[in-house]
Amino acid sequence: MSSEPHQPLRVVIPPVPEGVSAAEWWPVSVEVEWVETPYVDNKPDPAVLSNADIYIGTDFTAEMGTAATSLKAILIAAAGYDRIEPSAIPQGVIVANAYHHEAPIAEWVMSVAVALDHDLFKSERTFRSGDWSQWPSRFGSYRELYGRTFGIIGYGAIGKRVARLASAYDMKVIAAGRRAETAEEAKADNVEYGAGQEAMDRVLSESDFVLISTPLIDATRGLIGEREIGLMRQNAYLINPARGHIVDEKALYDAVSSRSITGAAIDVWYEYPVGSDDAPRPSKYPFWELDNVIMTPHHSGATVGTRDRRAATVAANIDHLSRGEKLENILNDISTI
Question: Rounded to whole angstroms, how far apart are CA atoms 203 and 193?
Answer without folding.
Answer: 9
